[in-house]
Amino acid sequence: MKIFGAMYDKTMQWSKHRFAAFWLCLVSFIEAIFFPIPPDVMLIPMSMSKPKSAVRLALYTAVSSVVGGMIGYAVGYYAFDFVQGYITQWGYQQHWDTAISWFQQWGILVVFVAGFSPIPYKVFTIAAGVMQMAFIPFVITAFVSRAARFLLVAKLAAWGGEKFAAKLRKSIEVIGWAVVVLAVIAYLILK
């Protein structure tokens, strides 16, 4: 069953759309608050298809993520009682517990690490608000971390460019199904 090739082709087509940067910013913004899909899934194809725009796109992504992170911080600071039930409901409880323990151990450095962590970024933005972390250091650290991550991702994707995109397209079915299998195994193990 070949489904990943069509999805890959559509993603590459969308990455060249005239409003692609807007959608990238929107996804980056909402991912820092509640959205489950990281902006990398848009940044990578956009950087591969437009290598000269990779740095600009990475900075758009970082700024949007930090602004979303500020909203996430406010949610944690002012409305955690409302959000608390969703953390468990959406399956983030283990991530939440990890983030809180990291904040207690390392303070502001956690925000920097969160930019590169596989734990969803929204967990850290909300946790920073709950822990009432100093706001300005939070914003500065979040920007440095997110900008570093997205610049790295964008530059690597741009470096590969269209040639890498063509090679990736040839293997996308195997990669896609491998990811699905690994996700199911991880779910069964962590369940």
From TrEMBL:
The keyword Membrane applies. It comes from Mannheimia succiniciproducens (strain KCTC 0769BP / MBEL55E). Residues 38-154 form the VTT domain. GO terms for cellular component: plasma membrane. Keywords: Membrane, Transmembrane, Transmembrane helix. Signal peptide: none annotated. The chain crosses the membrane at residues 20-37, 57-80, 100-121, 133-154, 174-190. The keyword Cell wall biogenesis/degradation does not apply. It comes from the Bacteria. This is VTT domain-containing protein.
